[in-house]
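HUMAN: You are asked to prepare a plain-text protein record giving the amino acid sequence and the backbone structure tokens, both parts labelled.

ASSISTANT:
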Amino acid sequence: MRAFKQGFTLIEVMIVVVIVAILATIAVSQYMQYIEKSRLAAVRSLLQNLALAELTAKADQSGGNGELISIDGSASSFSNLTKLGEYGFRPDPKVGFAALPFDGEEIGAYVLFAAYSLKGSPVFVYNFAPRTGVREFDPSAAYAALLPATMKVYTWTGENTPPH
């Protein structure tokens, strides 16, 4: 009578390990692409919300003839950010941004910059003059000299407390 073998051979186990490794590689790469897309969506969303708050604040001041609110990382930016908070803007603590005046194409225009706070993340821009929406930063654009070396990351600690 023959005895039956119990268990798996080494070849069978190695084949299973190779298949699991291939599936894990595919899953991790898909996960990383998903994470990168979500980061870019967070930056675009922040810029759109910032632009909307800026336009609402401008329209609310003196019948629409008000100034846009500058945020450049200076001490006065905190009070300016609080003003924008009154119009519904809340910064994302992982996205750096700046709102800077630009007198190139249209007097009184502003350019908004934002990037995720990881090294190597792309910079996105919203230019109020042409109002083309959120675009990836083009270094050949007329406002390229405005791009700050670093963009401030702000956090909001509550409804009535200023950012820090």
Remarks:
- Residues 39-153 form one domain.
- The chain has a mean pLDDT of 83.
